[in-house]
Automatic annotation (TrEMBL):
The protein's name in its UniProt record: Class I SAM-dependent methyltransferase
Source organism of the structure: Streptomyces anulatus (Streptomyces chrysomallus)
Sequence ranges assigned to domain Methyltransferase in this UniProt record: 60-155
Taxonomic path: Bacteria, Bacillati, Actinomycetota, Actinomycetes, Kitasatosporales
Keyword terms of this UniProt record: Methyltransferase, Transferase
Any Pfam family matching the protein: Methyltransf_25
């Protein structure tokens, strides 16, 4: 699963026994050499789909990590892209990937907890990749409400969401086993490391987005493949803060 440049077993063990924030600070220098980084094909598919929803002036990458989503925003936004994350280590890697003076819209980095975003309604577009497993179900509505409050009227919050694996499949049992192991770890060890794969279910997500004030639609990301029944393996969730748009969105 990991390249030779990725973390060692010992490093992963230390990270897994740390808090979520400290674990990512430790993992940051080698994060992009792990399978946890969002694959380029997902980033590219989302970029193409979201481009059709624009144009956009300003964009926010929620839980930006090492900056993969900011790379998407720099292709979609005309003026400014902002990455926010609570891990100082991940932000340091992101800054290195997008040094000052790089071509494209201005890039800014903010260290903050996504459950308490420090922004006025300033963004036309918000997105996030691979971060939602770090929030417990009870925190999800609050997270969505924070994103809602950071968007201008007409702004859109987008993220890809994969279809769940078939019950009984190898992928199903792998995710089930991972989540079970994390629950045991968090019951027996402090500080907690919050990361679960099976707590972000589509029906619950749509309900929480709607309660936060969004109007939601789903777009198929067909280039990421189809399931045996013909349904897409992944969809793009498009949650809109209704009102008169800014920047053409």
């Amino acid at each position: 699963m990991f390249t030779k440049q990725g973390p060692t077993v010992r490093e992963l063990a230390v990270q897994a026994l740390s808090s979520t924030e400290r674990g990512y600070d430790l993992l940051a220098p080698k994060f992009d050499e792990t399978p946890y980084r969002t694959p380029d094909r997902v980033l590219d598919a989302v970029t193409r789909a979201v481009r059709e929803l624009g144009p956009f002036d300003t964009g926010l990458d929620v839980c930006c990590g090492t900056g993969a989503g900011v790379g998407v925003l720099r292709q979609l936004c005309r003026e400014r892209a902002v990455g926010v994350d609570f891990s100082a280590g991940m932000l340091a890697e992101a800054r290195g990937a997008f040094p000052p003076g790089s071509e494209g819209p201005a890039v800014h980095w903010v260290r903050a907890d996504a459950r308490s975003l420090p922004f006025a309604p300033a963004f036309d577009l918000a997105l996030s990749f691979g971060a939602f497993g770090h929030f417990l179900p009870a925190e999800r509505f609050g997270l969505f409400a924070e994103v809602y409050g950071s968007l201008r009227p007409g702004g859109q919050f987008v993220f890809p969401l994969g279809a769940p694996p078939p019950v009984g499949s190898r992928a199903y049992w792998s995710l089930f086993g991972f989540d079970a192991a994390m629950r045991v770890r968090n019951a027996l060890w402090r500080p907690r490391f919050v990361m679960y794969y099976r707590t972000f279910r589509l029906g619950d997500v749509l309900e929480d987005l709607t309660q936060a004030g969004f109007v939601v639609r789903l777009l198929p990301l067909t280039e990421l493949g189809l399931r045996p029944d013909g349904s897409p393996r992944a969809r793009l969730v498009v949650a809109t803060r209704e009102g008169r748009g800014v920047g053409g969105s």
